[in-house]
Prior knowledge:
Elements: H1 2-7, H2 9-17, H3 27-52, E1 55-63, E2 69-79, E3 84-94, H4 100-113, E4 121-127
Amino acid sequence: MELFGNHNNIIKKKLQSGPYHALYTSPEIQNDILGIMANLVRHKITSPIKESQMFSLQVDGTKDNSKVEQMVSVLCYLDKDTVTMHEQFLTYHPAHNLTAESLTQYMQECLPKQGLDPKWIVAQSYDGAAVMSGKC
Length: 136
């Protein structure tokens, strides 16, 4: 919370002047606050994509420090107002099964959770995901 306070005067003031028993710094409260902030960021990311109603999907995998494959999703879309292409990170997700079927299912579940219709996909790329060739 202190990190957020360094960037937001309202949070900083609350942490400095609030009663000790009401600082909202318990792990549960912090997780709730982080969840709310994450939703705000997701909304800001997906709003222009929803306006465009077309995007390309790029999916790549990489292993994290614990050797678990993480699938990274990036969307490219055209901003209609500025006629500018944008590339935007969307999400990452552990991929315990690297079959074409499991990756397709992940994408079909991931996009609607972000309020994006899979029908808006106009192009797809899967760097290093040879299992996806000809499957989607």
